[in-house]
Design brief:
137 residues; Dna Ligase, domain 1; 3-stranded mixed sheet; two-stranded antiparallel ribbon; 5 helices; 5 strands; 39% helix; flat
Amino acid sequence: MASTRNTPQREAILAYLQSVHTHPTAEEVHAAVSRKLLSIALATVYRNLNLLAERGIIHRHQIGGGYRYDADLAAHEHCVCTSCGGIYDVPAEDIEAAATRHIDRKRFVPDHVEVTVYGVCAKCDHDTDTIRKVKPT
C-alpha cells in the first residue's frame, strides 16, 4: 500500500492542481511542478496523482483517450473543445436533472452523473469564422 504521509512532492502537486482550472495531464503537472522541485520524476507525479484520486482529494477524468486531473471537487460537468482541447467547467445541477429525468427511481437510483459535452469553444469558433471569411471560396 502507498505511503500515507504528506510528502513535499504530493503537496506541490496538489497545490498546483488547486491553482489551475485547466484539467492538466500528468505530463503537464510534471512540467509545472518540476520548476520548483527540479528532481521530481514523472513516475512520482503519476503515483501521487493516482493516490490523490483514490483518496478522493482530486478527480481523475478520462477525456480523449487520456487522463486529466482536477482539484475542484464541487459538482460540475465538462465541455471539451475538439479544436484546441480546452476543457471548461459547467455547473452540474441542470445537466444532472436533465440526464436523470426519465429514470424510473423504483428500478434504479443514480448516485452521481458524469457528462462530458464535446464541441467547439467560442475562441475556436471565432477563429474558424475568421478563417472562413479570409479564405477564398
